[in-house]
Amino acid sequence: MTRAHPEDVPRSALILAGTLVAFAFTLTAGMRIAHVAPAASPALLRSAEHIAPVRSRDLRFVDQADRGVRIEDVGTGQTASVIVPGQQTGFIRGVMRGLARERRMRGIGSAPAFTLTRWQDGELTLTDTATGRSIELNAFGTTNRAAFAALLDGPEAAR
Length: 159
Description:
This protein has helices at residues 11-33, 42-48, 90-106, 142-152, and strands spanning 53-63, 69-73, 79-83, 114-119, 124-128, 134-136. It is α+β, with helices and mostly antiparallel strands and 159 residues long. Strands 3-2-1-4-5-6 form a 6-stranded antiparallel β-sheet, with helices on one face. The longest helix has 23 residues, at 11-33.
């Protein structure tokens, strides 16, 4: 005689889980078989639609001894901004930490610039000139986008 234990998974839950897995597999296979193209990247869409940059700025992010970060305009050598420890700039720090990690994995130092670009369609991108990686900053919301947009809007940034 078989007894059900409290920790046993109900048969109906197993059937439901199996059905969901089968559905996901069928849907994925159907997309592959039908040759449905994946969504184009924003960079490819801008290129295809001939969307030009409105303003761009080459920046270097330099760590300081006090754990702050000095953001330097590569073209002028001027300080574009300074992030002091404790300042509410976690988004900029987080993005730059990820890009710096990728550079370290490839053996690239901090000397190459990052290019911050505003496009005609209002999009904002940060491109690592050393690795070619580009981050679409609009995807992170208006507050986070504004943290980077402020680096383009300074009077010394008019290019």
